[in-house]
Amino acid sequence: MKDTTSQPELIIEAGRSEGQYWKDLWLYRELFYFLAWRDILVRYKQTSIGIAWALIRPFLTMVVFTVVFGRLAKLPSQGVPYPILVFSAMLPWQFFANSLSECSTSLTTNSNLISKVYFPRLVVPTSAVVVSFVDFMISGMILLALMAWYNFVPSWRILTLPLFISIAFAASMGAGLWFASLNVQYRDFRYIVPFIVQFGLYISPVGFSSSLVPEQWRFIYSLNPMVGVIDGFRWAILGGESNLYLPGFILSLLLVFSLLFSGIWYFRKMERRFADVI
User: By CB atoms within 10 Å of each CB, which of 56, 106, 116, 141 scores lowest?
Assistant: First the structure.
């Protein structure tokens, strides 16, 4: 007897996978949750103090910068306690640095998954940025504790902080996509990225205020996109004497979003080769 039960129709269409890519990102959201949650669990597994490392590392860096720049060099602190000045910059910098480090190795770390199963590869570096964002949120508790210790009350500007967090996320994602793609093809980048992170810490206004940069150099200094991100965080958190150098901030903002869109473009261009090269 002939089976008249209707069967689902399978259509294979050239170019359809490209057109469906962004839709597939939503369809594979459970994989995104799994990768992010796995990395969060593994990061501090079998450590004696666990997630407290997310607090200790930025706290100790803040202490060193406060002693060197605040006590020894006696640099101005824009009318706020120097530890708060430093940590308001340490938050976005640590988020960016951790995202860059995690993203750059995210594809090679998941090489077995990438070479065997189809899914939008963009899920992998994005989950790495989200894991770094979790550390960012945990580290924020130190800033709250410092504010309580020094009886520091932020102004209305604190309401704009989510905007600057979004900009920091865009900068982390853009740079992370570039280095994730490059690291697949050129494994030298696993040695280059730590150097960039270390070097970037010293050329970014983390331990000092960017207002100390001579006026004629401030616009050029803003070619470092993290300058605008850090200045934005300080403007939102510190209030008072903290001011945004608007031309430099706009330049940093343009660079951040150029980095994001070019990172997505390059990642999508290289994505089809990942399984073969990795």
Answer: 116
Q: Please, is 149 exposed, middle or buried when counting C-beta atoms within 10 Å of its C-beta (0-12, 13-18, 19+)?
A: exposed
Compute the distance between CA of residue 181 and CA of residue 271 in angstroms, rounded to an integer.
8
The answer to whether 202 touches 69, Cβ cutoff 8 Å, is no
Q: What is the pTM of this model?
A: 0.87
Averaged over 122-129, what is the pLDDT? 91
Residues 6+ apart with CB under 8 A from 55: 138, 139, 141, 142
Per-residue pLDDT tens digits for 193-207: 999 999 999 899 999
